[in-house]
Amino acid sequence: MGVGTRDNLRDAAEAFSSNWRNRNLRRAQLGFLGAWTAEWAFTVGLGIVAYVDGGALAVGLVGLLRMLPSAVLAPLLSPFADRGRRERVLVIVSLLRGAATGGAAAVVALSGPVVVVYVLAVISTMAATLFRPAHSALLPTLSRTGHELASANVVRGLLDSVATLIGPLLAALLLALADVSAVFAVAAAASLWAALLLSRVRYETAPRPAAPRRNLLTEAAEGLRAVLRNGGLRLILGLAAAQSLTRGALTVFSVVVAIELLGIGESGAGTLMAAVGVGAVAGSLAASLLVGTARLGGWFAVGVALWGLPLALIGLFPGEAAALVLLALVGVGNALIDLAGFTLIGRLTPNDVMARVFGVLESLVAVSIGVGSMLASALIAWLGLQGALLTTGALCPVLAVLAWRRLRSLDRSVGDLDEDVELLQHVPMLRPLPLPAIEQIARAMEPVDLPEGATVFRQGDTGDRYYVIRAGSVDVVGDGRVVATLRRGDGFGEIALLRRTRRTATVVAREPVRLSSLTSERFGGIVLGYGPSAAAATEDVDGRLARFAPVTPPEAPVVEEPSPPESEERNS
After folding, report:
1. Do 366 and 324 sit in the same domain of this protein?
2. Alpha-carbon distance 54 to 377, whole Å?
3. Cyclic nucleotide-binding domain location, by residue (predicted)?
4. Cα 371 from Cα 287, distance rounded (Å)
5. Are residues 399 and 490 in the same domain?
6. Are 50 and 62 in contact (CB under 8 A)?
């Protein structure tokens, strides 16, 4: 086994073990498993109800009506997840879904009006569209590095895949042994289990900039503007919309292909969707080997292409065995999208609007799924089932090829951000910050290049910036003596910012130096806004002030003698 393979396997093992060791991540991820098992089981059961009620056209129409209200409400409600604690939003959503699907089970069991089932399905779906944005915004808050966030998305992708397998399999089993009401009842129980798990998540919120509370429409528009301003986000969300359109078509194709093309009956629809789950589980395990890769954009393109190509091939090679294998490839594509797409969005989006950006994504997904289900029904009526499969299946592969070069450029920009984050995490007071906060610092820092002998600031100056050394070294001079030499990854300048005093020392470039600087407003808002980093900063400053307490503020000449122990005295 090669070194690279061993490294990938080690990264994959660490991805899963780190999520299991962290109680909050474990509860959040298992809550996601319960919620999405409920969603897939409910989707299969609802498809059967609609098909019995009105055939393929009814399946597509119900899919559209189910998604349109969700598309409108997802971005409008997502600001709630940016305002407060995101796990509380997830608990409320799961309780609503449990109540709605439980109500649908009762209506079917009592042979009540089918329209009531459709109304409850709309309510359940509206709640479901808020679940993923809040959960996606929660994961970066629980992560401290890009690698850890990618690991969390790999684990969630695997659980999503498991849910894609378990949900339809449960539906198929319950349809064979009982009826649709049993499917809906199990979906309700899974949603309530998710609510219980998520209610036990405990964490300290990441610092967010203070902002006046505005109405929901204004706050929702900020998420849309964040997407429109960022070309990378626009690209990823556009491809996600195309993939979701194909997913909506698949909810119709799975029922019609099972009953009309393959002749395997109603329970066969659950079997076909379970094949997607099998492929998704296998794909998620394979995707875990990509946690440390710098090619997430490229793998995202592959995942998008795999959502369409198998459908076209089913149209060309109809047959039960071929359909099961090809739909498993769709599941592999889904796993790649979960890893790459959600990680890239999390890395490109500021924390204070993250849930709203994921809300925009969920709205696009909801609209696209609804449109895809109606489009599939219309194409079946116009071109026949096989022609509809060929036409729909061509969309995603073509778009993936066209977007390849731009996605690879996104990989390079995220790689640059990783370098900045790694540099900042050398600073002890910044190390406790969660990933969104430290990325906020990385984006806000401004470059400063100085020649040898240049003064960064003088003892007695007003402190207005914090600095981190990117390359080179500086001498810290207090009361005429060199008290420390700082090098790459060291920070300085925080004493004056934290204590609201003048500079306690002079800092001079020992050689040509490259610095990154952060304004005092940004420094205070981020570092002091997060409890663990504020405590680390205070402890560090207290220790250094106890060792070095200058008595006179004026500048003193730089002494050229060798310094005492360098690394013992850190940042000024």
Report:
1. yes
2. 12
3. 429-527
4. 29
5. no
6. yes
Q: Which of 469, 451, 477 is nearest to 556 (CA)?
A: 477
pLDDT tens track for 416-459: 777 888 888 888 777 777 777 787 788 888 889 999 999 999 88
Q: Are 75 and 139 found together in one domain?
A: yes
Structure tokens at 206: 């990441």
| Number of domains forming the structure of the chain | 2
- Name the band, by pLDDT with cuts 50, 70 and 90, for residue 400: very high
Mean pLDDT of all residues belonging to the chain: 79
Confidence of residue 293 (pLDDT cuts 50, 70, 90): low
565 in a structural domain = no
**Smallest Cα–Cα separation from 429: which of 534, 566, 571, 568?**
534
**What residues have CB less than 8 Å from 535, skipping those under 6 apart?**
none
The tokens describing 366, both together, are: 């909801």
Residue 304 CA to residue 503 CA, distance in Å, equals 54
Phi (first) and psi of residue 129, to 5 degrees = -70, -20
Beta-carbon contacts of residue 449 (< 8 Å; ≥ 6 apart): 512, 513, 514, 515
User: Is residue 10 situated within a structural domain?
Assistant: yes
Mean pLDDT of 358-377: 84
Q: Supply the range of the domain harboring residue 499.
A: 435-547
Tens-digit pLDDT profile for residues 83-92: 667 788 889 8
Dist CA 384 CA 376 (whole Å): 10
**Terminal Cα-to-Cα distance of the chain (whole angstroms):** 48
- What is residue 259's DSSP assignment? I
Contact 489, 468 (CB under 8 A): yes
Confirm whether pTM is higher than 0.90: no
pLDDT of residue 401: 93
Structure tokens at 288: 């875990």
Residue in the block written with tokens 């780190």 = 18
Number of Cα atoms under 13 Å in the Cβ half of residue 334: 30
Q: pLDDT higher for 270 or 103?
A: 103
Alpha helix (H) residue ranges in 110-230: 114-141, 146-177, 180-198, 216-229
Could you tell me which of 398, 252, 262, 263 has the C-alpha nearest to residue 317?
262
